Structure formats: C-alpha cells, structure tokens
Amino acid sequence: MMSLHEFGRLADCDYTTASRLLSGERAPSTRLLARICSAFGLDHGEALKVLARDHERDDGKHTEFASYLREQVIDANGGPGQAGRPPTALAG
Q1: Which of 4, 28, 65, 85 is least surrounded by CB atoms within 10 angstroms?
Q2: Looking at the domain assignment, is residue 66 inside a domain?
Q3: Does residue 20 lie within any of the structural domains?
Q4: What CATH number is given to the structural domain containing 55?
C-alpha cells in the first residue's frame, strides 16, 4: 500500500504536497512534474496536456490532473511505473 509519505519520497516532495496534488488542490511546478514523471514512468507530454486542460477551465482546481495521477500511479489496476509492483492504494 503506497502512503502519501512514499509517494512524496519517490517524487521528492513533502507528503502534504503529495496530498494536495492527489486531491486536486494544487498543480505541480515544472520541476516537480518532471520528478513525478521520472519517478513513476509517466509520459511527460501527456501529463502536460492533462495539466493544460485543468488550466483551460480556469477555476483554480486541478481535478483532472489529480485523477490522472490516481489512475496512473495509485489505482489498483496499475499503470505506467507499476510493472511488477503489487496494486497500490493511498493511506495517510
């Protein structure tokens, strides 16, 4: 089970930042996005497109990116970066 602390450790960010990213409260900086993509094997261009869609809504929420992260990194069905790893879920 992947905790917020583990997500933060792998992405080199604080667990509170991980929580805010995964809840849609904030978007990652350019540098943090690069670290997240590298840590979890995500396509950087695809992640940028998802972030752009959030910014187009201009409501201050980053829910699409949060969903993308949960689907690609956290979901029990796995995703990029999950090969050979057991299904994961968040625990505080």
Answers
A1: 85
A2: yes
A3: yes
A4: 1.10.260
Q: How many CB atoms are located within 10 Å of the residue 73 CB?
A: 24
61, part of any domain: yes
Q: What contacts 40, CB < 8 A, 6 or more positions away?
A: 10, 11, 72, 73, 80, 81
Number of domains present in the structure of the chain: 1
Domain around 25: 2-81
Q: Report the half-sphere exposure of 67 (CA within 13 A, side-chain side).
A: 7
| 9-56 per-position pLDDT tens digit | 999 999 999 999 999 999 999 999 999 999 999 999 999 999 999 989
